[in-house]
Amino acid sequence: MRRFFGTKEGDFIILENSESFHLQKVLRMKEGEKLIACVDDEFDYHCTIKKINKNNCILQIDSKTLCLALPKRNIVLFQMLPKKEYIDNILPKAIELGVNQIYFFTSKNTQMKSLKQERVKSQVYSACKQCERSKLIDVSLINFDEVIEKIKEFDVIIFSNEHEKNNKFDINLVKDKQNIAVVIGNEGGFSEDEANKLIEAGAKSFSLGSRILRCDTAVVSTLTLVGIFSDN
């Protein structure tokens, strides 16, 4: 069933802007048709299209159910800001794999210094619909020093380190942990000083193997391990 994000007003949900346009002009849905609407909370709202207006659509709420696709753990990705093409891969895959928040961050080896917020917002909406999540995730841009401060708040910090030679991923690191930070570099990787600062802050450094992976591949690999072994 088609899914949309809107705003709840009493027994109705209002779709506006791109969501209303998509329903009307792209999908050409009609009054009386059924769909699922989300309002950035823990529920899926099963609705009937009551009224299609020029600038919005009004949905009648028929029932609501808990969204089964929401993650059981709080997994937050700290991703060193990569090139645009990698961002386009990382955002949807991270959301599909259960991340609750994404912090892109600048550091010594980042060429880009900004995010296109409108593009990010569009990808977040699309990915949440794809994997049937009812809550949108927040995507922010911070610097490396802020990363060091923020990761101290977590139960465990998983650091995918391309320079690590000894440690492999240990399932006991994430087992039964509720708040998990995942730190991954970009195509340029971490400087030695940055890697040391992460480890000094409590990050658990591990290797994904002898092959150097692209950063978007490392995201999928690491989040898959974390998700499986933390029962996400």
Give the topology.
Layout: E1 3-5, E2 7-9, E3 12-16, H1 17-26, E4 34-38, E5 43-52, E6 56-66, E7 74-80, H2 84-96, E8 101-106, H3 117-130, E9 138-143, H4 144-150, E10 156-160, E11 179-184, H5 192-200, E12 204-206, H6 215-229
Parallel strand pairs: 1-4, 7-8, 7-11, 8-9, 10-11, 10-12
Antiparallel strand pairs: 2-3, 3-6, 4-5, 5-6
Helix pairs in contact: 2-3, 2-6
Give an overview of the whole structure.
With 232 residues, the chain is α/β, with parallel strands linked by helices. 29% of the residues lie in helices and 30% in strands. The chain has six helices and twelve strands. It has helices at 17-26, 84-96, 117-130, 144-150, 192-200, 215-229; strands at 3-5, 7-9, 12-16, 34-38, 43-52, 56-66, 74-80, 101-106, 138-143, 156-160, 179-184, 204-206. The strands form two sheets. It has a six-stranded mixed beta sheet with strand order 1-4-5-6-3-2. A hairpin with a 3-residue loop joins strand 5 (43-52) and strand 6 (56-66). Helix 2 (84-96) packs parallel to helix 6. The radius of gyration is 20 Å and the shape is elongated. The two termini are 24 Å apart. The relative contact order is 0.16.
